[in-house]
Structure formats: C-alpha cells, structure tokens
Amino acid sequence: MNKKAHAQYGRWHEMMGRCHNPNHKLYKYYGAKGITVHERWHDFWNFVEDIDSHLFNGHLLYQSRLEWQLDKDIKGGNIYSLENCTVVTAEKNRREAYEKQQRKIIAYDDTKEIEFKSVSDASRKLNIGRNGIQYCLKNGWQNKSTGLRFKYKIDEISVDLQSNSVLLTQQNNECVHVSTSA
Fold it and tell me: ∠ at Cα 103 (102, 104), nearest 5°?
C-alpha cells in the first residue's frame, strides 16, 4: 500500500512537520520548543505498527480525526513515542491545552510579588508581550521594561527526608521531583 493512501498518513505527516520542519506553520509551538518525534516513528510504517499493535486504544485513531487524537503531554513527554503517547478525545486534548495555558504565575522583584491567573493575564495587566513573559519564565530573565522576573506558582511542597527529595506540585497537578542528595 502507498503510505500516502493510509488512514494514518495525515496524522503522521502533520506530527513530523510540526516537530521537524521549520517551515511548518506550527513548528514554533513544537520543534522550536524541543518537541520531537522518536527516531522509530520517523519511519511511517513503524508508526503504524505501534498504533495498530501496541498503543492502548490505537484503533480509535482510525475513527474521525476530529474526535480522537494522539497526545504526548498527558504523560509529560516532549517526544512523540509509544511510551509517551496516549489516545484522547479531541475535547480532552483541547481542555488539557487550555489548562496548561492557565498556569498561575508570579511577577516579582526585590520588594514585591504579584500573582496572575496566567501569562495572558500578566501580559494584559503589565502591558508587555506574552512572548516576553514566556522567555523570562523559561530562561529566568528579568523583563527590561518592568524590571520584574517571573516564576510559576507552586501550590504544594512535600519533603521526603528518607530519600532526600522534594516534590513540588503546581495548580494543574504537574509535579516536579527534585533530588537533594549529592
């Protein structure tokens, strides 16, 4: 069979494009941010084999593309792979993306901290671009026009003295595990 005629070709082609083609309209949200496709899935037929034979609920991807999607974010990965991906409804995928965008952030300097509902909220209230805030968040930079730095709000901290580790939980239940042992 010609791979372009296969039901999963469009899904695979779009995934490869947004992750590996700088000319793709969505590359800035994926490939430019370090999102990649596992080497095994660079071969279309390996992708199909994994969808058909190994991915839980992979058969659902043969139904409407508008109804079922392949998601790498729920399991917390930056790589599209059999290990990271799961099949979700399009609605759940949209809801997860929206919630991820709504993470609370804190703008701060030496004298004050200001909490915002999201990057967009901070952008509107401080009259600075969202991209500028996102670069500051990602790189720990200070915004030149406001003198503020930005960080994500952390809702809960739990410390495990036995394993010398700290678990930080953010509002959307994303967890960051930090080991304190040398």
Answer: 110
108-132 tens-digit pLDDT: 999 999 999 888 889 999 999 988 9
pTM as predicted: 0.60
**What is the Cα–Cα distance from 8 to 55, expressed in whole angstroms?**
14
Task: Give the strand pairing for 149-152 and 105-108.
Answer: antiparallel
- 17 neighbors 44 (Cβ within 8 angstroms): no
1-41 pLDDT, tens digit per residue, is: 899 999 999 999 999 999 999 999 999 989 998 999 999 99
Sign of CA dihedral 116, 120, 122, 124: negative
Contacts of residue 74, Cβ cutoff 8 Å, sequence gap at least 6: 86, 88, 96
* Locus of tokens 């995934």: 15
Q: State how far the alpha carbon of 18 is from the alpha carbons of 5, 14, 99, in Å.
A: 20, 6, 22
